[in-house]
Amino acid sequence: MTTLTGHLTTALRLAEQGMPVLPLREGKGPMGNCHACRNNACGGRPNMKTPGPCECTAPCHAWAAATTDPSILTSAAWGPAWRQAAAVAYHPGGAGLTVVDLDNADAVAWARQNIPATRTVATTRGEHWIYLGTMTSPNAVRPGVDIKSVMSYARWLGPGSGAMGPLPDVVRALAVKEPSAARPTTSPITVLAPARGGQCPHRSPAYLERGIAMAEQRIKEAPDSIHRTVYRMFLAVLSAHGRCGCLAQAHIDRLFTAAQEKGESMRHCEDAWTNARAQLGM
Question: pLDDT tens-digit profile of 104-148?
Fold first, then answer.
């Protein structure tokens, strides 16, 4: 068993709480491959493309080496890593979490205006916003903003403050790249979401109204990347309201009007709506 260090003590406490952890070297990078598993000799997780724990007992596969097993964390094989560690990291996806990594003040200001409040952790240059739920982990979804969830790791910087909220659709939509614009067609494009009848599961018109108003506001306030913003807001609205039958033509007209006031053409609006529906299988 390795000697307890400050970082290892922190790691064991987090592991006990169900947080898969790993040591980070100086510079916030994961430890290098161990000698037994250099170049993935163990057959573990080549190129980190398959979710799952590392198949050896050394911290050799970055996020996939994260574990909650105290016998691995305190094993002799991990001893040198903890003695050299500069920080503790964790695998958010393995703990059922998503971290929105805001790398500077501008990114933090954007988050405060555009995504729901949740637990916040201060970083060296910005903030981590932590949500309950998992998703893919793309980098640079917008200037200064990365997503860390499955197949990724985040530095542990303390418990943070504020209540942790559920992962919202508007954050999931950040990971979706808009498909190529739909090709011209001789048939008219239907912009209405499919109504399936029955009572709206949201049970309150106010919920829909808040969603439409928020999407309008974010389109109107988008400082740049208007095509991407319009598509993401259309996608968020459709994912929340597109299948229950409560989304009416008047709501869609409001979204199209907000987009056109920002300079989008009707053709771009129709393409973005069609692509968002196709993305959701509607």
Answer: 999 999 999 999 999 999 999 999 999 999 988 888 888 899 999
| Helix (H) or strand (E) run with residue 263 in it | none
Three-class SS state of 228? helix
As a 3-state breakdown, the chain gives helix, strand, coil percent values, each rounded to 5, of 40, 15, 45
Query: DSSP class of residue 121?
Result: E
> What does the DSSP assignment read for 156-191?
-----BSPPPBPPHHHHGGGPPPPPPPPP-SSPPP-
Cα 138 to Cα 149: distance, rounded to the nearest angstrom? 9
Residue 140 near residue 175 (C-beta atoms within 8 A): no
Task: Compute the distance between CA of residue 121 and CA of residue 110 in angstroms, rounded to an integer.
Answer: 16
13 membership: H or E segment, kind and range: helix 6-16
Residue 258 is encoded by which pair of tokens?
Answer: 């907000």
Query: What are the E-state strand segments in the chain?
Result: 21-24, 87-90, 97-102, 119-122, 127-132, 145-148, 154-155
